[in-house]
Amino acid sequence: MHVMAYAPYGADGIIIRVEVDIRRGIPGIDITGLAEGAVREARERVRAAFRNSGFPFPQDRILINLAPAGVRKDGASLDLSLALSVMAASGFISVPENLMALGELELSGRIRPVRGVLAATDAGLRSGIREFIVPAGNAGEAAILASGRFAAAASLKEAVDALMVRHETGALPPPPVLPTPLNPARPPSWGDFSEVRGQGRYKRVLEIAAAGGHNLLVFGPPGAGKTMLARRLPSIMPPLTPEEAVEVTRLHSLAGQIKAEMPETRDPTGVTDPTGEPCLISHPPFRFPHHSASAEGILGGGKTIRPGEISLAHFGVLFLDEAPEFRSNVLQALREPLEDRVITIARAEGQVRLPAEFQLLLAANPCPCGRLGMRSGRDCLCSPEEINRYWRKFGGALLDRVELRVAVGSPELHNRGPEKEETSVEIARRVQRAVEIQRERFKGSLLRRNAQMPPALMDRFCLPTEAAEKALRAGAEKLGFSGRAYHGVLRIARTIADLEGAPAIETVHVLEAIQHRIQGEDPYDIFSP
After folding, report:
1. Number of domain units in the chain
2. 355 within some domain
3. Taking Cα atoms as reference points, which of 250, 247, 242 lies closest to residue 141?
4. Residue 266: its pLDDT value, please?
5. Do 215 and 401 contact (CB within 8 A), yes or no?
6. How is the chain split among helix, strand and coil, in percent rounded to 5?
7. Residue 189: its pLDDT value, please?
């Protein structure tokens, strides 16, 4: 008899077959199959959990093999599968052929929640596994894909009882209250655009970025509102589709970002943890790591490869505030994922690919001291060399992948803009309509937004009028656009046209796209197109 288990690793994880052989000999447990520290320590946790749950532990020699034997396994999520395999091998219980068990055992016999349950059920279902036993604290995750096929156990005794019921009735007992995790989750409160007076151009660029998935760089003096408005970007972004929500939640589950609940504090609905966070992430993620983050923290990796910030921002936004303060190797490593929408991590045992379809939002000061171009009369203290070194950390190759650039100035306190600013709800309606146009445009393909459109499809979807094409060519020649910049302007113009519901790209759309692509306003003559 055997029980299937799962170990988080990369984007897919590893499905493990736990095999047990019990023979006469000096009592003890041997584990083979490249078991790492946490798995080897499971021997004592399992033995204590048996005793404290009232089950007899076999007084024989026990050999446990974790197949495939050539792959390293780590983590405590194998505890429950080890315990049930030992019980099955000793004849105490009967386990079905295709059963996966997940959970970390405490010495008392209680089962602690583990990371990667959603990914485990996804991988298990694709591999032909049809029944699951998961920790009670992870019931909401399991119900997303395995509804009706899993039992939620808060202790080793409850897991055994569930298998007893399975043996008598042919089906695992359902949770007392079936979770309904696919209910739409209330998006987090990020603030509203109407709370910020002025900065109309910056708001317009954020609207275009949200609609088309374009990368954006905003720069200006401290206190101009760069970060304040950037953090309000999620308030105008459309919710994820059910398929996108499952994919995003699966990655967060693998990274341990889904806050599981212990049984005694579990919400009666089964869909939220004590903090009120939904099990299914239905709104685009918005990640904002600190500038001290390491390359592994941003890109992913580690001893057992976990998703990094660019994967946790999948189908959402990665916001790098004070972007020039990030390490140069971290900034330059973003170039390939921005193009490929995937990050490939090479290890001695092979390559691991993590999805990374994210939208990059960069915010920066104009210079290290932040006073360059300020009208307050306070002079910039930075030398030209210091300013060049500050901006050189971006590099031309990364900046060429940023389609939208906007300079913001210090707010003028005597001119606070219109009395009534547009709300996020009003802007979000326009963004939603533009996104629906793009979903229909790219139906049946792997593309989601205009920003991902390859040049091969532009002749089909980015058709400017004759006057608009002349304006685009004239602007590209005058400003010296690269090939990538030329296509970037065309994609931005397509998004602007979608926001207006226009089937063709008009001259006004092209001119606005060029304005958002060039370096911005004086005195920030820093970028080339």
Report:
1. 2
2. no
3. 250
4. 40
5. yes
6. 40, 15, 45
7. 66
Q: What are phi and psi of 428, to 5 degrees?
A: -60, -30
State how far the Cα of 236 lies from the Cα of 424, in Å rounded to an integer: 6
Question: Does the pLDDT of residue 53 top 90, yes or no?
Answer: yes
Q: Is the pLDDT of residue 181 over 70?
A: no
Beta carbons of 172 and 165 less than 8 angstroms apart: yes
Domain boundary (124, 153, 169) is at 169
- On the 0-12 / 13-18 / 19+ scale of CB atoms within 10 A, 31 is buried
What is the predicted pLDDT for the residue at 54? 95
447 lies in some domain: yes
* pLDDT single digits (tens) 158-175: 999 999 999 999 999 987
Give the tens place of pLDDT for each residue, 436-458. Answer: 999 999 999 999 999 999 999 99
Whether 106 maps to a domain, the answer reads yes
Q: d(Cα 238, Cα 240) in Å, to the nearest integer? A: 7
Interval 467-476: pLDDT, tens: 999 999 999 9
Residues 6+ apart with CB under 8 A from 466: none
pLDDT at 104: 96
Strand order in the sheet with 2-7: 28-32, 61-67, 14-23, 2-7, 99-101, 131-135, 150-153
Residue type, 5: A
CATH number of 489's domain: 1.10.8
Sign of CA dihedral 387, 393, 395, 399: negative
Query: Above pLDDT 90, what percent of the chain?
Result: 63
In the chain, DSSP finds a helix count (H) and a strand count (E) of 20, 18
Give residue 492's domain range. Answer: 425-517
The more confident residue out of 385 and 182 is 385
The dihedrals phi and psi of 20, each to the nearest 5 degrees, come to: -130, 135
Nearest residue to 438 via CA among 112, 104, 210:
210
Domain-embedded: residue 513: yes
What CATH number is associated with residue 107?
3.30.230.10
pLDDT, residue 218, reads 94
- Plot region of 278 (φ>0 → left; ψ -120 to 50 → alpha; else → beta): beta
Last residue of a domain, one of 169, 194, 222: 169
